[in-house]
Amino acid sequence: MVRSMVDAEWIAGDGMSTSGFLWTMREVGWQARRVLRPGGHVLMFIDWRMCELLASALESADLRRHPTLVWDKTYFGMGAIFRNQHEFIVHMSVGTPSPPQRQDVGNVLSFKPVTVADRDHPTEKPVDLLETLLSVVCPPGGHVIDPFMGVGTVGSAAVRLGLSFTGCELSEGFYRQAYSRLVNTSEAAAEANASACAGSQQRLL
Ligand SMILES: C[S@@+](CC[C@H](N)C(=O)[O-])C[C@H]1O[C@@H](n2cnc3c(N)ncnc32)[C@H](O)[C@@H]1O
Fold first, then answer.
1. Distance in angstroms (rounded) separating the CA atoms of residues 158 and 146
2. Which has fewest Cβ within 10 Å: 82, 150, 159, 191?
3. What percent of the chain has pLDDT over 90?
4. What is the CATH number of domain 1-110?
5. What is the pTM of this model?
6. Which residue stretches of the chain are H helix?
7. What is the pLDDT of residues 117-155, one digit of tens each?
8. Which long-range contacts (CB under 8 A, 24 or more apart) does 134-143 make?
9. Ligand 1, pocket-test mutation among 46, 89, 149, 172, most atoms within 8 A of CB
């Protein structure tokens, strides 16, 4: 922990040491193991520095590891030598994984990041990418949990797929933004369903 930080900033301000990160992620792994169904999937975004450490921490909580996914951001950003264009997504399951809902998605996923102008959170993820991930691992009627939900992008993806969602967020500001985003997405989804129903009723008449 950085010496000048107050306790509440330890996680939120990314001030934890490598060991702090590892022990925290191990606990997250145990909690995932506790709340998920057997076969449930865990997907976590992580950069190249911490990828292997994160996977080890989760494996030490008795989660089963699967091939790491690559998020190809389609163009490069900063980087001293080779410029950064990707992020990793560590994939684990609780024991034998539940079968995929579709088999047409590879483990290199090309999606543009949310631009600085469009984003509400510094590490906001593109909802289309999250929707693709969930569409593979989450069965119809399934439940999605994001214990670090930021502005609720995973929740939006879940709602768009008709899945239920539970999210936690430390920052009140981000929590409020997540809440309104989820309300807006649910209303849009309900309207889309209503017009789809109206369309099918018209066809029946
Ligand atoms: C990497 S960001 C997630 C961004 C999110 N994927 C999005 O697209 O908006 C992690 C979030 O976890 C929150 N956080 C950190 N520690 C937490 C804790 N112990 N409980 C709940 N949320 C926490 C931070 O405030 C931050 O918004």
1. 10
2. 82
3. 80
4. 3.40.50.150
5. 0.90
6. 9-12, 18-35, 51-59, 127-137, 153-160, 172-204
7. 999 999 999 999 999 999 999 999 999 999 999 999 999
8. 134/158, 134/161, 134/163, 135/101, 135/102, 135/105, 135/161, 136/100, 136/101, 136/102, 136/105, 137/41, 137/43, 137/97, 137/98, 137/100, 137/101, 138/41, 138/101, 138/163, 139/98, 139/101, 140/101
9. 149
Mutate to test the pocket of ligand 1, among 54, 170, 172, 174 (most ligand atoms within 8 A of CB): 170
Which pLDDT does position 198 carry in this prediction? 65
Residues enclosing ligand 1, CB less than 6 A? 11-12, 121, 123-125, 148, 150-151, 153, 168-171, 174
pLDDT score of 203 more than 80? no
CA–CA gap between residue 89 and residue 87 (Å, rounded): 7
The class that CATH gives domain 114-205 is alpha beta
